[in-house]
Amino acid sequence: MIGTLVATAFWAMLPAYVPNNAAVLAGGGRPIDGGREWRGARLLGDGKTWRGTAVGTLVGVLLALALNRLNDPASAALGAELPTFALPAAFALAFGAMCGDIGASFLKRRSGRERGAAFPGLDQLDFVVGALGLVFLVDADWALAVFRPPVLAVVLVMTPVLHVVTNVGAYALGVKNEPW
User: Fold this and answer.
1) Residue 21 falls within a domain, yes or no?
2) Exposure string (b/e) for 94-121, b if CB count within 10 Å is 16 or more?
3) 40 lies in which domain range?
4) What's the total number of domains in the chain?
5) How does DSSP classify residue 31?
6) In 11, 64, 126, 179, which residue has its Cα 20 to 30 A from 132's Cα atom?
7) Distances, alpha carbon 100 to alpha carbons 92, 97, 123, in Å
8) Is residue 113 part of a domain?
9) How far apart are the C-alpha atoms of 131 and 142, rounded to whole Å?
10) CA separation, residue 40 to residues 3, 34, 35, 43, 104 (Å)
11) In the prediction, which pLDDT does 170 show?
12) For 36-50, what is each residue's pLDDT tens digit?
């Protein structure tokens, strides 16, 4: 039962987990805020770019489509029925994750934090809030069928752990400038 919940939560969230990492790898390009400031601080900063947002969203959607093709053998191997992704849900998860991260950047600038500064809690769940918020808005039937309360609970516990582990790993590999 627990294994099935974890597998379902992880599978359903993969299109939201991957976009920000893909955006970092795509990096660079024109900042979304165009260098504009509000109340003496950048709106978002140089780390939030149009290219990163587009690439991150595209990678998340493509990953969801690839997971659809792998669904039957993965479900059989796990002995659990994993969700398939409707295109609107795939887009909402990926783009919502990017929007959640962009929103967190805005909040960080408002709180006086510089780019890359830690903001515990927000750093681990910003993209989850964005992804879930948008998927429930765009494809509520799919979201309600997949993200039942026990699955949501697993997502909220599992995500911060995965976030810390992957960021520390990326930092150790030299892909990130800070381990959070």
Assistant:
1) yes
2) bbbbbbbbbbbbbebbeeebeeeeeeee
3) 2-172
4) 1
5) B
6) 179
7) 11, 5, 10
8) yes
9) 13
10) 49, 15, 12, 9, 18
11) 82
12) 988 888 888 888 999
